[in-house]
Amino acid sequence: MGYRLLDPVTNHVVASRNVQFNEEKKKCISIQDGFSIEGKDLAKEEVIPDPSDAESKSMDESYEENIRQRRNIYAAVISTSSLRLVLAIIIQKNLEIYAIDVKTAFLNSDLQETIYMEQPIGYNDNSGRVCKLLKSLYGLKQAHRQWFKRFTNFIIRLNFQQLNCEACIFVRRSKKSEIFIVLYVDGLLIAGSDDSEVGVVIQLLRNEFGMSKTEVANEFLGISFEYSHNKFPLGQKAYAEKILNKFRMVDCKLSGTPLVPSTSSNFVNGERFHGSIVNL
């Protein structure tokens, strides 16, 4: 955008972005809406378009579109603090916890867009044709969010309420019982005060989605559970052992100070080093 300036000598209006204000010299001219000079309406004076405005608008629209696309891709994931809190509530109420995994969860999600894919290797008939997806596939950017939306819509139809502060926790309360469901991608924790109602909910979930065998929970997200006299200690021994096995360090020698603080980070196998640090 530029400035519209009135030249008091020539009575001409000039539009320009390059304006320098001289505060020492002031001249006040009162111009009302529609005031015209030499037959020209100042209120309708055409402003010289700035090419950068169109570029800026295009960038803003591109940014907003990028934000909309990101919102359509990412799904809620329960935080560690929320998981600890809901586990504490479940244990305080002395509820039994069951763990279930959804088989091929992302394949249960519905597509909102029309998506085509190339013919997979081994099925290509060299015709140049593409396949129209009828269901979501692993690898689609929006697969996670679409699965989360479908699960949420289904569980809400069962009279569960989604917490405002934590989208991955669902609660159903009645005068006789209450049931908690925790969702993390394709893993579920279910706990309730009435085992029969919990069983009904599990069966409804099993009928809607392919579920693994229901078991009493002893591990979730790498955190192990132990029931002991109204206590619920949490541990990550299994997760630590998994990391050691992954990086072949089960039989490694312990060291109080693995590296000197001034050690250079230029390692021979930098990817392996960074990968091990990320898992901690």
What is the helix content?
Answer: 25-40%
Sheet of most strands: 6 strands, antiparallel
* Beta-strand residue percentage: 15-25%
What would you say the CATH architecture of the domain at 80-221 is?
2-Layer Sandwich
The DSSP helix count reads 6
- CATH topology description of the domain at 80-221: TATA-Binding Protein
C-alpha Rg, in Å? 32 Å
Mean pLDDT: 75
Low-pLDDT stretches are: 30-46
> Which CATH class of the domain at 80-221 applies here?
Alpha Beta
Strands, count: 15
Order of helices and strands: EEEEHHEEEHEEEEHEEEEHH
Shape: extended
Organism: Araneus ventricosus
Protein name: Copia protein
Domain Retroviral polymerase SH3-like: 2-26
InterPro entries: DNA/RNA_pol_sf, RVT_2, SH3_retrovirus
Textual characterization of the structure:
With 280 residues, the protein is an alpha+beta fold. The protein has a domain at 80-221: 2-Layer Sandwich (TATA-Binding Protein). Helices cover 29% and strands 20% of the residues. It has helices at residues 51-71, 80-92, 143-157, 195-208, 237-246, 270-278; strands spanning 3-7, 12-16, 36-37, 40-41, 96-101, 116-118, 130-132, 161-162, 169-173, 178-184, 187-192, 215-216, 219-220, 223-225, 234-235. The strands form five sheets. It has a six-stranded antiparallel β-sheet with strand order 8-9-10-11-5-12, sandwiched between helices. It has a three-stranded antiparallel β-sheet with strand order 13-14-15. Strands 1-2 form a two-stranded antiparallel ribbon. Strand 3 and strand 4 form a beta hairpin. The two termini are 52 Å apart. The relative contact order is 0.10. The model is unreliable at 30-46 (pLDDT under 50). This is Copia protein. Residues 72-260 form the Reverse transcriptase Ty1/copia-type domain. Residues 2-26 form the Retroviral polymerase SH3-like domain. InterPro entries: DNA/RNA_pol_sf, RVT_2, SH3_retrovirus. It comes from Araneus ventricosus.
